[in-house]
Specification:
By secondary structure, this protein is mainly α. The chain has a domain of 122 residues: Four Helix Bundle (Hemerythrin (Met), subunit A), CATH 1.20.120. The protein is built from 7 helices and no strands. The radius of gyration is 44 Å and the shape is elongated.
Length: 211
């Protein structure tokens, strides 16, 4: 009878440990002492290598950034000579007349298409522009640019001549009543504007800032 009680008591004690009692399992470090030391040494080595790589990359990047900061983005352009300055100043008032006339004609064509400007008023604007272009052509031809700016004068003169051709084409509409002449005149004016913009970007940077 005593044996049964003892066996029963021991069975209950084991059952209690498996279900509700404290667990008898204790996790152990899977590596030996030597392996632990070796692993810690490897981790320390990797940390030193990573620090060195990061430091060198930062130093290299800082040096590159400093070099970029020191190098000028756009080297300064050489100053104009006195002869070049005198020519550019002489061309400026002619340029102003050409620009104003071209703008008035362009706006006049728009207002005409939107019925905000009469056909007679448009003709007045184109006639005035034609007179300006003819005068500008003579005034530019009378200038004597230094050799360094001879090409620029040829380009500007070619632009004025394109404006003249554009105006002559537009004036045909008042002869035959066909508004299609305005469309034919457009590419001539655009080509002239492109040429003047190229010259102006060189001479008058404040008026024609770079894109």
């Amino acid at each position: 009878m005593e044996r049964k009680r003892a066996a029963s008591s021991r069975g209950m004690h084991l059952a209690g440990d498996g279900i509700t009692g404290k667990s008898s399992y204790h996790p152990q470090w899977p590596f030996s002492g030597k392996m632990t030391v070796a692993a810690m040494g490897a981790l320390a080595f990797l940390a030193v290598v990573a620090f060195g790589v990061t430091r060198e990359a930062g130093t290299t990047g800082g040096a590159a950034s400093a070099a970029i900061a020191r190098s000028p983005a756009n080297p300064p352009k050489p100053a104009y000579t006195r002869a070049e300055e005198a020519y550019i100043q002489a061309l400026w008032p002619i340029h102003g007349d050409v620009e104003r006339s071209t703008l008035r004609v362009s706006l006049g064509k728009i207002f005409y298409k939107t019925n905000d400007l009469s056909k007679a008023d448009l003709k007045t604007r184109i006639d005035a522009a034609m007179a300006t272009y003819q005068s500008a052509e003579g005034r530019i031809s009378a200038l004597q640019p230094p050799p360094s700016l001879a090409r620029a004068q040829d380009d500007y003169l070619a632009a004025v001549q394109l404006f003249k051709q554009s105006a002559a084409e537009a004036l045909k509409m008042f002869e035959d009543g066909n508004d299609e002449h305005l469309l034919a005149a457009y590419p001539l004016g655009q080509e002239g504007s492109t040429k003047i913009r190229a010259v102006g970007a060189r001479f008058w940077q404040d008026e024609f800032p770079p894109n």
